[in-house]
UniProtKB/TrEMBL annotation:
Entry-linked PROSITE patterns: HIS_KIN (PS50109)
EC number: 2.7.13.3
Calcium is among the record's keywords: no
Enzyme class: transferase
Keywords: Kinase, Membrane, Phosphoprotein, Transferase, Transmembrane, Transmembrane helix
Chain ranges of the Histidine kinase domain: 639-864
Protein known as: histidine kinase
Catalysis: reaction(s): ATP + protein L-histidine = ADP + protein N-phospho-L-histidine
Native source species: Tamlana crocina
């Protein structure tokens, strides 16, 4: 193969030749400009001499008017008028000549205006002297002398202006002489420099061509050595045209040794053959079309293709580059990378699916708890050595507890109820909770709460969940007060006011009065609305209402009603109804018998508890899914920590034995392959380690504590002391706050961000990392981030490294996402994903800002 024809180009020499030619033109134009300036300077000196001459004539013209001879001529008759006219005409001509010569000098032009006026004045004074005719000789003499005196003054003023003009011209003459002398010196000097520069360019061009010839020989030898030792298939093809001058195929001109390693093809045997004959698969899968397009459009083409070689699927990344007379094809074996990508993609999809389900469940549960006005508490049983429940621990409480007790949910979590609420948690309440857990029954009761000499009443509903109790509290203080006041009134007022109070103060609640003897049901207006309207009459038979009860609940509904009627006992029951519009609702009825006008009637309240029941079911399902997801993650941790690492440990063991005993027996290429295997095992171990770190960051951790970030930073600096010393990085940090978090996760966050800045530092300048702190309002956060708290700790990590394109600011926080090849920078693309997960675990955020070559900023927002 003709390496010189393939890998060399004349563009460099053409550019140098054009540059030299342009420089010569520039130098020649400079010499030409110097000559023109020299000529212009000579013309300006000549122009000044002309001005001198005209000024001299003007001076003589003025002196003539002051001479006695000229005055005597004016006094003679009759030629005086002709002499004066000729004299005046001569003055005007001199002034016009000066105006033309000084047209480029505004200052001289300004002086010529009064000079012309003085000459006209002089002509007038001479005319007066010429026409002077008095009877007395004495009078004639005195008048003539007076007129001569006026003429002398005018001539004096003319000489003053002439001297000013003359001085300005003398100044211009000195200046122009200096410019002429300068141009007279520079013109030949520029020509000499031009000749010397042309000689210098010729000499440099000769040296450049000679050195390039030597460099080409060395590059050719180096290229041959690279092509013989590379792991990539490198072939060079020349085009084959048909009779219509259309490119239809290629001829193999060069093929390196890797053709034998991967395709079992001898390089010497395939040289000279057609590509379509040696590699027919390129025609079948359409790659030949791309290769033809590469030659025609002179554009690089890249494609990844799988090939079946000896019944084994192998992937190759091909780069087709157009050269002068053909194309260069470089194919790299990417089988291992593609297999790893498939495994990583599968794992990533599973992990994303689990995380998405977990986030959805968590968000759904959070929205439910925020949307209701009730206090929701989940209590976990605390048992003694005998297995009996003696207390309960608060594992969850929503924020609605704060306005009532003043307690912050985060501070009372994981504490015993007996410690937090010793006044409320009496033996009766404990018995209620124990019955719920042990028997699985739902308990409803009312409980008072005293704070700051104020009494509050709550209606509590306790439901079993696992080995604990989910407690829902609704404040009924006003209802309780109203009920107490109504006990002092008569029976009618008690009944009516109870119905009105319940209907007005309870949402989604209707009331009714039912007479069992007549089967008349008197529902409230809200009851009508809840059912969609069952009758236009004020009274309706209970059997008509029964038609709206769900068919599956009819049997239990009838049985409860029968028991209540026969025993005159209170009725409490939850059942489903189908509204007039076909909708499904859950009704909870609570009624009791009272004596009205000597007859036993039932007074009751019906509550629409559809939302509560659905929320409880969703909450239960979400908890079950959350437990299942956590179990799968724990199973993955066990597999990753043992089953995935065990084969790697065995590979490392065998690698160590081969290095100790057999390494010298391997060829240089074998040693190179062996080193690649060792590096691959180390990368796999690092990948598993980081995956374990990522999966073990648990958002439900309970070991949050007050941590000092200054101490965290100090520990990180101590761990990275060796790297910091080797890189010479300047680390500047503000005083950092104390916040509630997980210490080892914060330490990992700081370590990953500082290590990232050290890894991607700029090698052309001293590395510098700044850690700045600021307490900011939630409005300072970007709009796309959720803002659950009012104040946030803002910690900014800035460096002067190589930076990255701002369009990748979100991508870099994804698992396995890298912006550089592993040959450029080490790593596996999990470090920043761990940082993001740690920030979210602390209910915070992390964002990145950067541009290529301008360093990077990682900003962490943590709630106060």
């Amino acid at each position: 193969m003709d390496f010189k024809r393939v890998y060399t180009s004349t563009k460099t020499y053409i550019i140098l030749l054009i540059s030299a030619f342009v420089l010569l033109l520039v130098m020649a134009s400079m010499a030409y400009k110097q000559t023109i300036k020299l000529q212009e300077s000579a013309e300006m000196i000549t122009h000044t001499v002309h001005v001198y001459n005209v000024l001299g004539n003007l001076s003589r013209h003025a002196i003539q008017a002051d001479s006695e001879e000229f005055k005597q001529q004016l006094l003679k008759k009759p030629t005086e008028s002709e002499i004066l006219k000729k004299y005046s005409q001569e003055g005007k001509q001199l002034i016009d000549s000066l105006k033309k010569l000084t047209v480029d000098n505004p200052m001289q032009q300004a002086k010529l205006k009064p000079l012309g006026s003085l000459l006209n004045k002089l002509s007038g004074q001479l005319y007066v002297l010429d026409t002077l005719n008095l009877e007395s000789d004495q009078e004639f003499f005195e008048a003539r002398e007076l007129q001569k005196e006026k003429i002398s003054k005018t001539l004096f003023n003319i000489r003053v202006i002439e001297n000013q003009i003359l001085k300005e011209e003398e100044r211009l003459m000195h200046k122009r002489k200096s410019e002429y002398a300068s141009h007279k010196f520079l013109a030949p000097l520029t020509s000499l420099i031009l000749a010397f520069f042309a000689l210098l360019i010729s000499f440099i061009s000769f040296l450049r061509i000679y050195r390039n010839k030597l460099r080409f020989k060395r590059s050719e030898a180096l290229l041959k050595n690279i092509l013989s030792t590379t792991d990539n298939v490198i072939n060079y093809y020349e085009p084959i045209f048909n009779n219509a001058n259309e490119l239809v195929d290629y001829k193999i001109v060069f093929a390196n040794e890797c053709n034998r390693d991967y395709f079992d093809l001898e390089p010497d045997e395939i040289i000279g053959k057609k590509v379509s004959e040696v590699f027919p698969v390129l025609v079948e899968n359409g790659d030949m079309v791309e290769m033809i397009r590469c030659y025609k459009e002179r554009k690089t083409v890249v494609f990844d293709r799988p090939l079946m070689i000896q019944n084994e699927k192998m992937w190759f990344h091909s780069l087709v580059t157009p050269l002068e007379g053909g194309i260069l094809v470089t194919a790299r074996n990417t089988t291992a990378e593609e297999n790893a990508k498939e495994a990583q993609l599968l794992f990533k999809k599973r992990l994303e699916k689990h995380n998405l389900e977990l986030l959805n469940n968590r968000a759904f549960l959070s929205n439910i708890l925020k949307s209701i006005s009730h206090v929701v508490i989940h209590l976990k049983s605390v048992r003694n050595n005998e297995g009996k429940i003696n207390d309960f621990k608060i594992s969850f409480v929503n924020e609605n507890v704060t306005p009532i007790t003043g307690d912050i949910p985060e501070k009372i979590k994981n504490k015993k109820v007996s410690e937090v609420c010793p006044d409320i948690f009496n033996p009766v309440v404990l018995e209620h909770f124990v019955n719920v857990v042990e028997e699985g029954t739902t308990q409803h009761y009312q409980v008072p709460y005293y704070q700051n000499n104020r009494e509050q009443w709550f209606r509590a509903t306790a439901i079993k969940l696992g080995d604990g109790v989910t407690l829902t509290l609704r404040e009924i203080t006003e209802e309780k007060k109203t009920s107490d006041r109504l006990t002092h009134l008569n029976e009618e007022l008690v009944i009516q006011n109870s119905i009105l109070s319940d209907a007005e103060n309870l949402a989604k609640i209707g009331s009714f009065i039912w007479n069992p003897e007549t089967d008349d049901l008197e529902p409230s207006e809200n009851f009508y609305r809840m059912l969609g309207g069952i009758s236009e009459n004020k009274k309706t038979p209970l059997s008509e209402f029964r038609e709206y009860v769900h068919p599956e609940d009819i049997e239990v509904y009838d049985r409860r009603n029968l028991k209540s009627i026969t025993q005159f006992s209170s009725l409490e029951h939850t059942f489903r109804i189908i509204t007039k519009q076909g909708g499904l609702k859950y009704f909870k009825t609570n009624g009791q018998f009272v004596n009205k006008n000597g007859k036993m009637v039932m007074v009751g309240v019906v509550q629409d508890v559809t939302d509560t029941i659905i929320a409880e079911e969703n909450l239960l399902n979400s908890n079950l899914k959350l437990k299942q997801s956590n179990a799968e993650l724990e199973a993955f941790n066990r597999v990753a920590s043992h089953d995935l690492q065990e084969p790697l440990r065995k590979i490392q063991l065998f690698i160590s034995r081969i290095e100790d005993r057999e390494i010298e027996a391997l060829s240089d290429k074998g040693k190179s392959y062996f080193k690649k295997v060792t590096n691959a095992v180390q990368r796999m171990q690092s990948l598993i380690k980081n995956l374990l770190s990522y999966s073990r960051i648990d958002s439900s951790r309970t070991d949050f504590e007050n941590i000092n970030l200054d101490e965290i930073l100090s520990n990180v600096e101590e761990d990275l002391a060796t790297v910091i010393k080797e890189t010479g990085v300047e680390l500047i940090a503000d005083k950092l706050p104390v916040l509630n978090g997980v210490a080892f996760q914060m330490e990992q966050l700081f370590t990953n961000l500082i290590s990232n800045s050290l890894k991607y530092r700029n090698l052309t300048e001293a590395p510098k990392i700044e850690i700045r702190y600021e307490l900011v309002d939630s409005s300072s956060l970007p709009n796309r981030l959720s803002k659950e708290k009012k104040l946030y700790h803002q910690i900014t990590f800035s460096d002067n490294g190589i930076g990255f394109d701002s369009q990748h600011a979100e991508k870099i926080f994804e698992v396995f996402q890298r912006l550089h090849q592993k040959t450029e920078y080490t790593g596996n693309g999990i470090g920043l994903a761990i940082c993001k997960k740690i920030a979210e675990n602390h209910n915070g955020h992390i964002i990145a800002k950067s541009s290529v070559g301008s360093g990077a900023q990682f900003i962490v927002f943590l709630p106060v």
